Amino acid sequence: xxxxxNSYNFKVVLLGEGCVGKTxxxxxxxxxxxxxxxxxxxxASFLNKKINLDGNRLNLSIWDTAGQERFHALxxxxxxxxxxxxxxxxxxxxxxxxxxxxxxxxxxxMLGTEISLAIVGNKSDLEKDxxxxxxxxxxxxxxxxxxxxQTSAKLNKGVEEMFLAVAQKMLDESKEKAVQAxxxxxxxxxxxxxxxxxxxxxxxxxxxxxx
Amino acid sequence: MPVLTxxxxxxxxMYATKQPSLRIKQADLKCKSGCGFYGNADWDGYCSKxxxxxMDHVRQRKSLQNQTPENSKTQMSGFTKFEEKKRQQTDxxxxxxxxxxxxxxxxxxKDSGRPERYADIMRQSTPDTDKLLVEFIxxxxxxxxxxxxDLLKCAQSIVTEIFCGLDTKPIEDLAEIAQNxxxxxxxxLLTNPVYQVVPSDVKDQLLDFFEKYSMMSLYRFLFCPPFTxxxxxxxxxxxxxxxxxxxxxxxxxxCISETSIEVRDLVYSAINDLLxxxxxxxxxxxxxxxxxxxxxxxxxxQHCQGGPVSADEFLPALIFVVLKANPARLKSNILYxxxxxxxxxxxxGEAGYYFTNLCCAVSFIENLTAESLNMPAQEFEAYMSGExxxxxxxxxxxxxxxxMHQLCEHLALLKGLSERTDTVKDDxxxxxxxxxKLKEEITEKVTSVLERTPLIIKPRKTLIxxxxxxxxxxxxxxxxxxxxxxxxxDHNNExxxxxxxxxxxxxxxxxxxxxxxxxxxNKLQLExxxxxxxxxxxxxxxxxxxxxxxxxxxxxxxxxTPDDSSYAGLSKINYDIDFSxxxxxxxxxxxxxxxxxxxxxxxxxxxxxxxxxxSSCLLxxxxxxxxxxxxxxxxxxxxxxxxxxxxxxxxxxxxxxxLDNIEETTAISLPPPMKPTAAEYTGFxxxxxxxxxxxxxxxxxxxxxxxxxxxxxxxxxxx
Lengths: 211, 719
Description:
The complex is a heterodimer. By secondary structure, chain A is an alpha/beta fold. Chain A has one domain (2-181): 3-Layer(aba) Sandwich (Rossmann fold), CATH 3.40.50.300. Chain A is 45% helix and 21% strand. In chain A, a hairpin with a 2-residue loop joins strand 2 and strand 3. The longest helix of chain A has 29 residues, at 182-210. Chain A is globular and about 45 Å long. The two termini of chain A are 42 Å apart. By secondary structure, chain B is mostly helical. Chain B starts with a helix and ends with a helix. Classes of the chains: A alpha/beta, B mainly alpha. The interface between A and B is large, with 55 and 55 residues.
């Protein structure tokens, strides 16, 4: 969602099953800390991050979501009008990967290609317990036109890169969108502008009259 | 006198002007307004109060008559000016609105009742919008008139447009219009030259204000509008939440520890914030309430589990709070915010996130099933139908909490009370100790004083010697004949005298001790009482005296000896006690004083009541004793010489004499400051020059209390 020429506001939702490390990822990225007890004042469910990317100012609003199965139905409320979605799974947990797949389906169905997707295999530090193979995950990601990353929030591996890549992609897509569909927005703006102009004229007149 | 007469005449004039007749009726004196109080001619016959009212009326009438438009304007205070301006603006606004093409069109097309209704909105929405305007002017006034005009104009246009669409368009379209207007205004902020000077953060605030202002004006029409089914939804969700009242934190897998008092308080504050949402009018204010509520929820979770709060924990907690709060018109509020809050705000930022979570919570509650609570469908149904009434952990926890809370409070109270009793005990202990200490101190002081005071008695001996010397000197020098004879007897007398006088002194000392404790003022009072005792003691003493002269001398000596201490005191300042004692016979002492006075005057300031012996001795050595003796001896010796021997041997006879003597001496004692004595003294060329000082000294010595007696006593002394 662009406001100024070079400043963008992006909303990114974190989706995934419970206990895959969504919150840890966000905390690691925004506060550069892992499972920190000393950050008790921070609420990790919603965080803002400002970054500069190629001279563009990006304001990332990262929304954590409740991952429990029973809240799955609430997904649409969360990811409504978001620019990016980070789908997190636990490489030691095949079920979480399956969950990611269902999320992807839902997102593509609801939002189409408007949303930038990133599939993230977290807990890469637990390589020995890996149940989701990297090849499988990457193959799937490619199939659904999503990025794929391996991260370890615990070791702070690949977290920043992942978020930056997502931001870059959202930026590219929004620029592309602006180029592709200038007419629609222009139409909208023109319509609104005309009304305003009308008002302006009238007010000017009234002002003059009163003055 | 002339002044008095003038006053009288003035009074009379007043009187006359008011009442020409001599007989004044009561009613004529009363206030003209008939309030029952007395009137005054100066106040047009009104009482003071009625006159003031009357004058106020008169003044008001005058000011009303005098007031011209210019005057009224200049008289206006800053605020009224502001109001006036605003009124003009609103007038202008109304004019402008009437001239608005959109409005005109619609009014032309639609029924003629619309304009009135429109005017009605504009008028009725003033209290809130006026407040906002004032706020705006105070906050953004620095950006100039143009910014404000433009903002108000845009707000007016959105209000107009939405209002026009109220009857024809569905609420969603109205929401879109509002969103369009927000975007438009946002663009306008960026493009319009009016806003060029405004920094970007203020522009954001202006956008918020634009939304606030327009929504404040339209709140009545857009919140839970009658052409939607929002109200039904409200009732539905309310019933649903009521049915789900049995759901507790455990059902939601929510880690709120319901039994903790702190948690309970936090949950209460969250619930309060959520309930407060309904009373707010603009979407932003409602959002603020939601944010506050959610922050409280976050605090609850932090308190319960510690560490950062993730959405996995936050959402169940929020659901729990919503279930327990069951806010009024929840759905209407949510829909109102969703529709008319600027979308960009809803999609980002803290407020947007929390509001989204609230929406999720409501949605979850609406679609709550047995599955979502992880319980068998049968049990869920039983709960919902009311067959199973689980003693809700929350409710019971509340009761338990209440009990615990009260217990804690009472315990705290008891603790405080016990602390206070302890402190009181300590204080009383300390006080008792202090009192004991004080008692000891006082007794110690008293004893020390008692110990110290006997010392004064000793000087008496030396004094006696001195007096003897003096007497001998005086008698030798001045009255050789009588003095020579008297000296031996004098010695005897002195020895005899000692005992009674000692008693007397002890009395005095006791008095002095009392005096010590008292302030100096009290000393004067005490002066008189001793006189009586002196009389007695002196009467006891006198019989032993051989000659009248001697007796007088003795008495003088006696009186002096006590005086000595006092004289010591006099020299050093404290003669109160002794003087008082000697007041009867002080005449001698007083007469003695002048010379002493002159030399030791500086030492008068020293406050020691029981002056050292040495000083008193020194003082006594001064030749004043004789001088004191002189006046009397010369006058009296002739008379009293015959009685000298009888006095010594016969007790009864002398007593009469003695009494007379006492009277005389007392008489003499009193007059010192007076002229007569002074006149007597003038006869002595040597000391006459020193006499003038006498009155002063006696005056100081505390005889001032007896000034009235002096004339008579002086006469007596002359006699």
